[in-house]
Amino acid sequence: MVPRWGNLQKVAAPLSLTFGPAPEVTNSIWLNTNTPLRLADLRGKVVGLEMWTFGCINCQHVIPSLKSRYAKYKDQGLVIIGDHFPEFDYESDFNHLKAAVADYGIEYPVAQDNDGATRNADHNIYWPALYLIDKSGQIRYIHFGEGAYEEIETNIQALSAESQP
Fold first, then answer.
1. CATH number at residue 51
2. Rounded to an integer, what distance in angstroms lies between the CA atom of residue 36 and that of residue 16?
């Protein structure tokens, strides 16, 4: 279980450390994928789990970097999952989410998390929040908010270069 982080802006540790196993993604409603994704099925891949909501300006600012990383590394095994947990009622409407994903040009899988099952399993209270999960399913890096784009890229590269356990 990942502990509640309080008011931290960023949680980072050397990639030699772990924050523990990533809780499973259990969402049933998805965009940009034919079937729901499960972390257990993604072993052997690096996963970027992004907690976001489409009305959040900080989340909107992060989207271009996520799209760039996805385009650059998806063929090397990076999977990005956008876990959309609404802040306001209008964001919980699937048609509004679908329109936002199209408007932002998001091509990576996006899960609708209206009940907060995935968000709460990670004890997350921030938008945006990025969790980098290694090939064995361990959370190895967490970043809250905008920024640290070079650090995130370096960590994606390092996790991608690790041999599969």
1. 3.40.30.10
2. 30
* 1 in a structural domain: no
Task: Give the residue numbers spanning the domain of 47.
Answer: 10-31+41-161
CA 97-60-8 angle, to 5 degrees, is 110
The neighbour count for residue 36, using CB atoms within 10 Å, is 14
In angstroms, the CA 83 to CA 24 distance is: 12
Alpha-carbon Rg for the chain, nearest whole angstrom, is 14
In a domain? residue 80: yes
Q: What is the pLDDT of residues 58-72, one digit of tens each?
A: 999 999 999 999 999
CA 149/CA 147 separation, integer angstroms = 5
CA angle, 151 then 154 then 155, to 5°: 85
Measure the CA–CA gap between 67 and 110, rounded to whole angstroms: 12
DSSP 109: -
Contacts 24+ apart (CB under 8 A), 56-61: 56/87, 56/127, 56/128, 58/127, 58/128, 58/145, 58/146, 59/127, 59/128, 60/104, 61/146
Global pTM reads: 0.89
User: How many Å separate Cα 102 from the centre of its chain?
Assistant: 18
